[in-house]
Specification:
This protein is an alpha/beta fold. It is globular. It folds into five domains: about 5-180, Gcn5-related N-acetyltransferase (GNAT) (Aminopeptidase); about 200-485, 3-Layer(aba) Sandwich (Rossmann fold); about 495-635, Succinyl-CoA synthetase domains (Rossmann fold); about 650-700 and about 770-895, ATP-grasp fold, B domain (D-amino Acid Aminotransferase, Chain A, domain 1); about 700-770, ATP-grasp fold, A domain (Dna Ligase, domain 1, 2-Layer Sandwich), CATH 3.30.1490.20. It contains 28 helices and 41 strands. Its EC number is 2.3.1.-.
């Protein structure tokens, strides 16, 4: 059986192989490849399975038949894949498929009766389908009795495309393993519901025990306990301290097992060497969730990492969801919970921003700044080392939380960025996601021979992920909070047209400059609108609108009403300096009066009063944000515009491609590895073959090792031709004089051959017919260990490194992703036909980009691909110079494979 892999991790076949997933009741299930030593456990499961379940699975009640099939799955490793499910320490289910023919296999399931209704069958089906898809299986077949209602329901509810045939009481199911929209929707709904049930014990506990709550103030456990009490927690709280009967007026018990009721949440603040013992006792006592504040784990080197692995194993054994270790704690401001289980001095107020921070210090900074600006928090969690609960988990949890309108994350690492991106694409359609990604300076350029690999950095991968998934990347915590303040107040901007109005002309100019620098437009207002503003007393009626230093609050209100109702702008920035002509309270009242009736977003910059409130409360409960500087107000609004544009645009589709040959592409790869098992750079001819299997137009090329061979190749190709050095160590051929183009006869070719080989010190050259005249682009792909294939499009030829005009995207690549990729290049106007020049065939360029994405998907061995140049001509797009490297690899599952530990670095 082929080992299954997971993005960022390897399942392997060892004792720890597999993935922790959530059953429908929120409990943890491990799904992993079957092992040889599973036979005894599977035979024991066969004894626990009812006669009815055996009959429905094997069309008979012979347990010997079940044992024989168990022996086959655990000992015979050819032609099939089998996965087992572990729950509560037992093997409770198995799913398998047997290959019937190319692209098709027969699947089967057996589940212990005691776990029916927990969604474990669905989890096995999803992972089995993902595994089959990775290995080229397009259809899974199953024969089941018509009376097997439970299995039929699992298959019907899966969301996968199915074809059914009914004959003599037997239902034949044919399941398409491809992901369709309804498949993804149902998978996301199931995971979201399971995640909510699982995290409920952490964010909304009825009982909390603080283990390690010391008697003296100042200690972490003591201060956290006091925060819980001071915050008005609506449940019951206990202290665990073997040396006290009471801590901070809270009853104390010597151990968590001595607490007189079942504890939902244990907050652990004991030394690192005691954490395992406390967590084990907690699990045995029925604790559902734990927050480990203690440091001294993976951040402390090898010994700490091993201790952290043991910590997770204990949590999994007892189905305890775990936050941390090395974290600050969590907060839920919901009135029915009111839990502040942190040791921070900040007490967040209720609001609509949910925050997760990998760093406790950054978490405190976010809470403090949010509180200072009046932004309330729905929930906050310090993720720490993310041994269990990750950024992906809280995204799913907050997706369904009605109190959360905006999600903010501070992350330092990704372990499963592809899953993060997929979740963000779905969640972002209803809730904006703001991310500060730490560690920008730590990543350097990767080693690589191709232009694409040399240009790829960790930052380009993160930017591509965020761009495609609609995530707003913030440069600082301050920017995150500012942007959240704007996004928390509906409505979203409907476009880029901005009006600036106020009594501070200088601030208005600064706001206008900031808007222009961020892609916002300040349209000239129509004559009618300007006349209305002049009648109010405006001294400048263009845009910005200057009401004059002596403008009254009443005139500001009138001007705002005019602008909000004119239909010529999409949002408004108010710049107002407090003067004796209008007190701050009166200014705020005027803005509130106009803002209540406005259907446009309004942000405010108020200067001249140190004691001005950070927000303006409207009668309908909305709170308009007030900023100290015009630039910060515009910056936050520009982010809101960008998010609104992404949310409003269609999601796009991955186009179906004609003229692609997956079987032929795999054959080219197989032939190469037969000759070069360790992998490497493909010879130019084989690289061209592989691209042609993807339907990419490649200018024919021939290799020559002598002048005579070069002349013969030129005769075959037909003049004019180009000659290039084929020396493998030369990346920038033109830099050393290793390229000659436009050679029209044998004399010129002979001279060029001598010059090129002399410059490179290598007799090998490439002889190639001349490509049509056009714009030179660079198109490529590089496979990142965590992010998967990264596609690059940019200016090519000698301008590749000079301009650094590049765009990056990941998979899956939709039609809109590719279009945005191309139109974002600085050379885009040239492609469209600049100053009367003929436009390039942009459809052909887009097709080439999609075909490279297809190749990266069907050839997981593709490590680097560089087409430079790709000539974008009016008649099509033609690959001229191709470099392609393959490395041994096994197929990678995509982000949809379920995995709780997805963010583990």
């Amino acid at each position: 059986m082929t080992a299954i892999e997971q993005p960022g991790t390897t399942a392997g076949t060892g004792p720890d192989a597999g993935w922790d997933v959530l059953a429908s009741d929120g409990s943890v299930v491990r799904i992993r490849p079957v092992r040889r030593d599973d036979e005894a456990a599977l035979r024991a499961m066969n004894r626990r399975v009812s006669d009815e379940s055996l009959y429905l699975r094997f069309f008979g009640i012979s347990r010997n038949m079940a044992d024989e099939y168990t022996h086959h799955l655990t000992t015979d490793h050819d032609g099939h894949v089998a996965l087992v499910a572990e729950y509560g320490g037992d093997v409770v289910g198995i799913a398998s498929y047997e290959v019937l023919r190319a692209g098709e296999a027969e699947m089967a399931f057996l589940l212990q009766d005691s776990v029916h209704g927990k969604g474990i069958g669905t989890l096995l089906l999803e992972q089995l389908a993902a595994t089959a898809r990775e290995h080229g299986i397009e259809r899974l077949r199953a024969d089941t009795l018509g009376e097997n209602a439970k299995m039929l329901r699992v298959l019907a509810d899966s969301g996968f495309e199915q074809v059914r045939r009914l004959d003599s009481g037997v239902v034949e199911l044919v399941l398409d393993t491809a992901y369709h929209p309804q498949t993804l929707e149902k998978m996301a709904d199931r995971e979201r519901a399971a995640e909510n049930r699982s995290l409920q014990r952490l964010f909304a506990p009825r009982t909390v025990a603080v283990v390690g709550a010391g008697r003296k103030p100042g200690g972490i456990g003591h201060e956290l306990l006091r925060n819980i009490v001071r915050g008005g927690f609506t449940g019951q709280v206990y202290a665990v301290n073997p040396h006290a009967g009471q801590v901070a007026d809270v009853p104390a018990y010597p151990s968590i097992s001595a607490v007189p009721c079942t504890v939902d949440l244990a907050v652990i603040a004991v030394p690192a060497e005691q954490v395992l013992t406390v967590l084990t006792e907690s699990g045995r006592s029925g604790v559902g969730g734990a927050v480990v504040l203690t440091s001294g784990f993976s951040e402390f080197g090898t010994a700490g990492r091993e201790l952290q692995r043991e910590l997770l194993a204990v949590a999994r054994r007892h189905s305890v969801r775990l936050i941390g270790p090395n974290c600050l704690g969590l907060v839920n401001t919901a009135p029915e919970v009111r839990l502040n289980a942190t040791f921070a001095e900040v007490a967040p107020t209720p609001g609509t921003l949910a925050i997760a921070a990998q760093s406790g210090a950054v978490g405190i900074a976010v809470l403090e700044h949010a509180g200072r600006t009046g932004l309330g928090i729905s929930e906050f969690v310090s993720l720490g080392n993310k041994v269990d609960v990750s950024g992906n988990d809280v995204l799913l949890h907050w997706w369904a939380d009605p109190r959360t309108a905006v999600i903010g994350l501070y992350l330092e690492s990704f372990g499963n960025p592809r899953k993060f991106g997929g979740l963000a694409r779905m969640i972002g359609r209803t809730k904006p996601i703001l991310v500060v990604k730490g560690g920008r300076s730590a990543g350097g350029r990767r080693a690589g021979v191709s232009h694409t690999a040399a240009a790829a950095t960790p930052e380009s991968a993160v930017d591509a992920l965020f761009t495609q998934s609609g995530v707003l990347r913030m440069d600082s915590v301050e920017e995150l909070v500012e942007t959240a303040r704007v996004l928390a107040v509906p409505p979203l901007p409907r476009g880029r047209r901005l009006a600036v109005v106020g009594n501070a002309g200088g601030a208005g100019i600064l706001a206008a400059d900031a808007a222009g620098g961020r892609g916002l437009e300040l349209p000239e207002l129509s004559t009618g609108v300007q006349e209305q503003l002049a009648a109010i007393g405006a001294v400048g009626t263009g845009n910005p609108v200057d009401l004059g230093a002596a403008a009254s609050p009443a005139s500001l209100e009138q001007a705002l009403r005019v602008l909000a109702g004119c239909g010529e702008v999409d949002s408004v920035v108010v710049n107002y300096a407090a003067t004796r002509a209008g007190k701050v309270e009166e200014i705020y009242a005027a803005i509130a009066a106009a803002g209540t009736a406005s259907e446009l977003p309004i942000v405010v910059n108020c200067v001249g009063s140190r004691h001005a409130a950070p927000e303006i409360e409207l009668p309908d409960g909305r709170r308009l944000p007030v900023f100290p500087f015009p630039e910060s107000a515009v910056r936050a609004l520009a982010h809101a515009v960008r998010y609104a544009e992404w949310r409003a645009r269609p999601q796009g589709v991955v186009p179906a491609l004609a003229r692609v040959d997956a079987v032929g592409a795999r054959a080219v790869v197989a032939r190469f590895f037969q000759e070069t098992p360790e992998g490497g750079w493909l010879p130019p001819g084989q690289a061209a073959q592989l691209l042609r299997r993807a339907g990419i137009s490649v200018i024919p090329v021939a290799t020559a090792s002598s002048r005579a061979e070069a002349l013969a190749a030129a005769e075959t190709a037909g003049y004019p031709v180009a000659v290039k050095t084929a020396a493998p160590e030369v990346l920038h051929k033109t830099d050393i004089g290793g390229v000659r183009v436009g050679l029209v006869n044998a004399v010129e070719l002979g001279q060029a051959y001598e010059a090129v080989t002399s410059a490179a010190g290598d007799p090998r050259v490439l002889v190639q017919a001349m490509a049509p005249s056009g714009i030179e682009l660079a198109i490529g792909v590089v496979r990142d260990r965590l992010f998967g294939p990264l596609l690059m499009a940019g200016s090519g030829g000698v301008l590749t490194d000079v301009l650094a005009d590049r765009q990056w995207r990941g998979l899956p690549l939709t039609d809109l992703d590719a279009l945005d990729m191309l139109h974002s290049l600085r050379c885009a106007p040239v492609l469209a036909g600049y100053r009367g020049a003929r436009a390039a065939d942009q459809d052909a360029v887009l097709s080439t980009i999609h075909r490279i994405a297809w190749l990266a998907r069907v050839v997981p061995e593709l490590a680097e691909l560089d087409i430079n140049p790709l000539v974008a001509a009016p008649s099509g797009a033609f690959a001229v110079d191709v470099r392609l490297r393959l490395t041994p690899a096994t197929p990678e599952p995509d982000w949809y494979a379920r995995h709780l530990r997805g963010d583990q670095p």
